[in-house]
Amino acid sequence: MRRILLPLGLAALLLGLAACNSALDPQGGPQLQAQGAKSSLDVVKTATPYSTPGTWTLTKTAATADGQALAAGDTVTVAPGSSTTLSYQVVATPTGGDATVYGVKGTVTVTNGLVSDITLASVVDQLPLPGSTTPVSIGLTCYDPSSSTPDAPIGFPYTLTGKFGSTPAGSITCSYDHVFSGTPPLDTQLTNGATASGSYISGGTTYPVAGDGSAAFSFAAAGSSPIAITDSLSCPTGFTCSKTNESTATATDGTVTYSYDVVVTAGASLPCGTSYPLNNTAGIQGTDTTASLGLTLSTGTCAPPPPPPPTGGNCYTQGYWKTHSSYGPANPADPTWNDVGGPDATFFYSGMSWIELFNTPPSRGNAYIQLAHQYMAAVLNVDSGAAASPDVQAAMSWAHTYFDNASNKPSSYTDAQQARYYANVLDAYNSSTGG
After folding, report:
1. Pure H helices in 254-328
2. Quick count: other Cβ atoms within 10 Å of Cβ 318?
């Protein structure tokens, strides 16, 4: 065999060509992928499902805690310091056929993964559906965000520049918004796939390239609400409105129902005999459909003025009785205290003695303690021989029944407005003469 000696430069050239040839891909094309590229064409896809309401009608109703229906404009009485519960329900009914439109939208981004330019021939987006042998074709509108007209749609074939040196890889973004005809499969994972194909030229030879990407999505299960119901309640100043027992909007035979309760509490400092609007509006998100139900909150009828003091008799204020027990400081003690068992006698269910309750100020307008002070003074006045009018006797009888209810204590009590009213009646009586 004859040996042929080649010049050093020619030998290096031939070695370089051999190295290039050794980089051929299995199809015979050179692998000119840019460093870090996932494939010849990198395809990234997103898919966001949505449903939009069609035409619906809304009905809104309200009722009291005992089930009494309320109509728009009805008045609900809530005395200052007390609460009441209102029950609301919203019913949405589709008008004519399937009122919900289902769709999926997203983007397909195709990027050149080679150092060579790629001629992109097509981008195809398809959605296979369960039970169908023919996938749904998704229409795409593609743009080149790096071009001088990034908002102008592009056509195919389209050239994607290769990433070489400081030149970035060419990329396009395609958007889609597909609306289904009818209702798609619910509570089922669907996979939307996109495929990009094209070619590049190397050494005078054309080589095919391709890439694909997919995104999964699903629609809510049957029976869940296909619409989003909104509901706003304008609570008047001086009141608190707390929503409770809120249900999840559910669909039955196409009708969507949503319900909740509202505990309405009137502030203790609100004036009596005043009315306030309680406005409530429900709607369907994404539409102009609304339903309103306005009620009126009333703080109730003002208590009549205290009756005139009775004539005759010796009445003393609570201050007198508080200081004229066996605990002093006044001396001697008034013997009338013995008629009620003395200052240490327990006052009903209060957990306190008479003198302890006398010495407890009615902080924050405590109606129980206000009434207790005047009731104890009135009892001692009557026991000492003071005359009491029928109005005063009625007030004392009401107070006795009130305190004899185990649910009424200084820390927790009912009927605050009525208790304050009778406290005023007895205060007028106790202050009529004497002390």
Report:
1. 318-323
2. 22
For residues 109 and 194, what is the distance between their CA atoms, to the nearest angstrom?
10
Exposure class string for 322-340: b at 16+ Cβ within 10 A, else e = bbbbebeeeeebbebbeee
Q: Is-contact 82 240, C-beta < 8 A?
A: no
Nearest CA-CA partner of 192 in 129, 134, 260: 129
Q: What are 49's two structure tokens?
A: 């499902």
Tell me the C-alpha distance between 156 and 160, whole Å.
Answer: 11
| Cα distance between residue 319 and residue 317, in whole Å | 5
The answer for residues whose C-beta is within 8 angstroms of residue 24's C-beta and 6 or more apart is: 30, 31
Query: Going residue by residue through the chain (435 aa), what tens digit of pLDDT does each one get?
Result: 444 444 544 444 444 444 444 333 433 444 444 433 345 899 999 999 987 766 778 899 999 988 899 999 999 999 899 999 999 999 988 775 555 778 999 999 999 999 999 999 999 999 998 888 899 999 999 999 999 999 999 999 999 999 888 888 999 999 999 998 877 888 889 999 999 999 999 989 999 999 999 999 998 765 556 677 889 999 999 999 999 998 877 666 668 889 999 999 999 889 888 999 999 999 888 778 889 999 999 998 776 554 444 444 578 999 999 999 999 888 888 999 999 999 999 999 999 999 999 999 988 889 999 999 999 999 999 998 888 999 999 999 999 999 999 999 999 998 889 999 999 999 999 987 533
* Cα distance between residue 8 and residue 209, in whole Å: 38
Residue closest to 213 by CA, chosen among 49, 44, 47: 44
d(CA 22, CA 20): 5
Structure tokens at 417: 């407005």
Q: What is the CA radius of gyration of the chain?
A: 43
Q: How far is CA 258 from CA 57, 102, 250, in A?
A: 14, 22, 7
Element (H, E) at 121: strand 118-127
Cβ pair 367, 412 in contact under 8 A: no
CB 102 within 8 A of CB 179: yes
Is the pTM of the predicted complex or chain greater than 0.85?
no
For residue 88, which of 280, 319, 266 has the smallest C-alpha distance? 280
Torsion from C-alpha of 354, 410, 303, 381, nearest 10 degrees: 0
Q: What is the C-alpha separation between 414 and 407, in angstroms, rounded?
A: 8
Q: Which two tokens stand for residue 259?
A: 């319900």
Q: Side chain identity at 413, as an amino acid letter?
A: Y
